[in-house]
Each structure stands twice: as structure tokens, then as C-alpha cells.
Design a protein that fits this description.
By secondary structure, this protein is of the alpha+beta class. Helix content is 28%, strand content 36%.
Amino acid sequence: MIRHIVMFKIKDEYKDEIPQLVENFKGMKGRIEGMLDLEAGADILYSERSYDLALTTVFEDRAAFDAYQTHPVHLPVKKRMHEVRSGSVACDFEM
């Protein structure tokens, strides 16, 4: 299994959109073959080192993770995140 973790910093002008961005992520759950789990949420601490929101997903294998990258359910969510983010970090590892 592969765990995919991404944290996003959102541009100031889009911060009010964070709840919708989280819902966009959650809307992918159960709609992408090979994705076993998905969790998403907004930061609640607002510390200096905090990111604004996070996405964690679990895929059954590397092939499922690779297919996710171009899946039609994922692409509009990915596109929107590229528009509203000022930065992101990711970590992907085998479980």
C-alpha cells in the first residue's frame, strides 16, 4: 500500500475557500479505483509552521497511485489546488 500525504498553503485571497477545498477533496472518496482511504481537513492551530489544509490518501499499490494522477475525478480538484495554493509539500511512502 502507498500512503500519499500533501499539505497546502493557500494564497491569502482564497483562504475563505478552504472549507470548500476540503469538501472537494472529500468528494473524491469512494470514486477512484484503488484508493482505499481518504482524509482531508483544515488546520486548527494556525501556528507559524502550520499549513492551511492537508490531504492523506491510501492506495492499494503503486499502479493505483499512478492512475490517480490522471483520473478524471482527481483532475479538476488538482487543477483548482494549483490555482489557489502558494505552496505545498508531499510525502509518499509504502506501508
